[in-house]
């Protein structure tokens, strides 16, 4: 983030009606400008402005945090290549990376290998795991022992959640400093396939969690109780679209009494940035909601165009 002194300096240099040579800006101000761009924009456009901008763009300090999105499937391979280039430019100084929509086993292995030989990586998130498998994630995290934050979201598209429990055990055992886990799948309105595998893996291996986002998981009250038993430091718990959990009675009191922020299974999902469509039961038969479940009208359904519009607005804001 730009400091107030740097911002005021930039405002002083660029007065109304005054033309300046952008190449003459001090490197620290040029860095602040370029940091507002994405990795692709820096490499493909900004560095071609002038020699001084190219020099700043190659500075390893510019690449301590990398966030890239690929909304076009035809561009995924290109963005993976650009992500590798950005990782190389950090020269081991990368501490946070977010390869959204295009992360693969090969890319994650490359990132993990680079940082097992250099400075530690603390934050990793990936969304829409079209090319990343549970095995690929497990093999990579053993090389990232100082990881503090991990996000794997929209993973239901490739059946990723089916083996996620075993993978998260490896994550917890390999990353003892983990404080934030965002494990998000697609919710089912009345899932007959209940599973506490992921919840039990978290309870068994991640006692230091402070923030847990569990969007669309199939856990039950038993799984939630196991997490509460084993994770005494939880401050934020997101259970939205976890429709197998009846958050009431003693369980509700237990959550609300010790956790600062609790997002309930039926809470609004307007601030969730990914596909939050609620599906019918997994056996293909529609639910009649005779058991008192929330009516379908209370769920938010988003078309693909709405999701992409949101993603584009989020990316360019």
TrEMBL record:
Q: Residue ranges of the F-box domain?
A: 19-66
Tell me which PROSITE patterns the record gives: FBOX
What SMART domains does its record include? FBOX (SM00256)
Which PANTHER family does this entry report, sorted A to Z? F-BOX DOMAIN CONTAINING PROTEIN, EXPRESSED (PTHR38926), F-BOX_LRR-REPEAT PROTEIN 21-RELATED (PTHR38926:SF2)
Protein name from the UniProt record: F-box domain-containing protein
The species is Brassica napus (Rape)
């Amino acid at each position: 983030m730009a400091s107030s002194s740097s911002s005021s300096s930039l405002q002083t240099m660029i007065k109304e009606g005054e033309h300046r040579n952008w190449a003459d800006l001090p490197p620290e101000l040029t860095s602040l400008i370029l940091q507002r761009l994405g990795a692709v924009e820096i490499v493909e456009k900004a560095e071609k402005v002038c020699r001084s901008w190219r020099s700043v763009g190659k500075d390893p300090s510019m690449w301590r945090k990398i966030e890239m999105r690929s909304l076009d499937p035809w561009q995924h391979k290109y963005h993976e290549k650009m992500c590798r280039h950005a990782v190389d430019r950090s020269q081991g100084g990368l501490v946070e990376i977010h390869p959204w929509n295009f992360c693969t086993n090969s890319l994650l292995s490359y990132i993990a290998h680079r940082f097992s030989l250099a400075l530690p990586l603390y934050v990793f998130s990936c969304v829409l795991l079209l090319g990343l498998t549970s095995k690929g994630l497990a093999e990579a995290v053993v090389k990232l022992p100082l990881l503090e934050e991990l996000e794997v979201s929209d993973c239901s598209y490739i059946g990723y959640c089916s083996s996620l429990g075993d993978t998260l055990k490896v994550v917890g055992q390999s990353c003892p400093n983990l404080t934030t886990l965002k494990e998000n799948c697609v919710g089912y309105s009345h899932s007959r396939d209940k599973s506490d595998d992921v919840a039990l893996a978290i309870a068994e291996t991640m006692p230091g969690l402070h923030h847990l986002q569990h969007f669309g998981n199939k856990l039950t009250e038993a799984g939630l109780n196991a997490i509460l038993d084993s994770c005494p430091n939880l401050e934020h718990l997101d259970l939205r679209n976890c429709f197998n959990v009846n958050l009431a009675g003693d369980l509700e009191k237990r959550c609300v009494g010790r956790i600062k922020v609790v997002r309930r299974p039926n809470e609004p999902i307007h601030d969730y940035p990914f596909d939050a469509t609620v599906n019918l039961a997994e056996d293909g038969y529609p639910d009649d909601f005779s058991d008192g479940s929330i009516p379908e009208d209370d769920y938010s359904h988003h078309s693909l165009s709405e999701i992409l519009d949101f993603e584009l607005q989020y990316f360019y804001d």
